[in-house]
């Protein structure tokens, strides 16, 4: 006697097993299809190599959509030109990837970001020595490809490298070099308009113009720059007090140039308030005292 119910039950079970197997295969195929073909590390290597070879179009294509809103391909090329003027890459190594569930970049929160840790062995042309540099890069998935979140690190490194290049230029004293430094710093400020250190460097350079015909207004420009340096000073920086002392000292010096000695003394005393061991404001206060006497 054939049990029809048993046969029907077996058929149903086989159908269910077949459907389950198909669904499993489909999920595997979909997951494989949704995974980027190149890893974040491979994209990081491609970006570094393309930048070093001067293939800026390909390097730029590896940036995220949000990064491209803030950085142009011209900015990228200018960044590399400044970098190679201050540093030479001897070798580099890309470390392990790490997934970060939530990551805030340029005021926006991203999910499932991949962090790539890189170590560069470089020749520092400013200090004339071999050095090691650690860089973290962050990647998001766009259209099934890893793309680089660059803006935060880009604007910071652009400023640091620009100040290094400015110092290299100032090894030669003269109006020509002051003009070149002025242009370098203005470009860096355009990239990162809230960098206190850039404005400090700009104020210092404006003071170099003093005494050259046709540049009588540069000390007023220096005053504007030093005020912006104070405005954007990072109070969370571990060197906050030291930086504040240097900025207030320079503001005092600028006011001395304008013969506003009472105001200059106030800011020089503020410089000592933040760093009592800073010898520069002590010297400048003594200079004012001798002048007034």
What's a concise summary of this model?
The chain is an alpha+beta fold and 293 residues long. 61% of the residues lie in helices and 19% in strands.
Keywords:
293 residues; 12 helices; 61% helix; 4 strands; alpha+beta; single chain; elongated; four-stranded antiparallel beta sheet
| Major sheet: arrangement of strands | 1-2-3-4
Q: Give the averaged pLDDT, no decimals.
A: 89
Number of discrete helical segments: 12
Helicity level: 55-70%
The H-and-E topology, N to C, reads as HHHHHEEEEHHHHHHH
Instruction: Kindly provide the radius of gyration, computed on alpha-carbon positions and rounded to a whole number of angstroms.
Output: 29 Å
Straight-line N-to-C gap: 127 Å
Shape: elongated
Strand residues, percent: 15-25%
Largest sheet report: 4 strands, antiparallel
**What is the SS-derived class?**
alpha+beta
Segments where pLDDT lies below 50 for 5+ residues? 28-33
| Counted beta strands | 4
Explain what you see.
By secondary structure, this protein is of the alpha+beta class. It is built from twelve helices and four strands, in the order αααααββββααααααα. Strands 1-2-3-4 form a four-stranded antiparallel sheet. A hairpin with a 4-residue loop joins strand 2 (108-124) and strand 3 (129-142). Helix 7 runs antiparallel to helix 8 (196-208) and helix 9 (218-231) packs antiparallel against helix 10 (240-257). The protein starts with a helix and ends with a helix. The model is unreliable at 28-33 (pLDDT under 50).
């Amino acid at each position: 006697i054939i049990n029809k119910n048993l046969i029907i039950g077996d058929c149903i079970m086989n159908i269910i097993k077949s459907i389950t197997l198909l669904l499993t295969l489909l999920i595997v195929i979909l997951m494989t299809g949704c995974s980027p073909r190149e890893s974040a590390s491979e994209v990081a290597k491609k970006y570094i190599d393309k930048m070093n070879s001067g293939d800026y179009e390909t390097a730029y294509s590896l940036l995220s959509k949000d990064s491209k809103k803030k950085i142009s391909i011209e900015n990228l090329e200018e960044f590399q030109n400044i970098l190679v003027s201050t540093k030479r890459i001897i070798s580099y190594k890309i470390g392990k990837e790490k997934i970060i569930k939530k990551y805030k970049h340029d005021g926006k929160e991203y999910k499932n970001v991949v962090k790539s840790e890189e170590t560069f062995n470089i020749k520092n042309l400013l200090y004339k020595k071999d050095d090691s540099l650690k860089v973290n890069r962050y990647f998001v998935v766009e259209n099934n490809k890893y793309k680089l979140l660059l803006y935060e690190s880009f604007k910071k490194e652009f400023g640091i490298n620009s100040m290094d290049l400015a110092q290299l230029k100032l090894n030669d004293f003269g109006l020509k070099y002051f003009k070149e430094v002025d242009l370098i710093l203005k470009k860096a400020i355009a990239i990162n308009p809230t960098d206190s250190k850039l404005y400090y460097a700009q104020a210092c350079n404006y003071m170099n113009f003093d005494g050259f015909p046709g540049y009588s207004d540069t000390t007023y420009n220096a005053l504007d720059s030093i005020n912006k340096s104070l405005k954007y000073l990072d109070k969370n920086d571990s060197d906050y007090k030291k930086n504040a002392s240097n900025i207030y000292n320079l503001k005092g010096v600028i006011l001395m140039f304008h013969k506003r000695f009472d105001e200059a003394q106030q800011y020089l005393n503020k410089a000592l308030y933040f760093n009592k061991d800073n010898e520069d404001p002590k010297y400048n206060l003594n200079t004012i005292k001798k002048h007034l006497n």
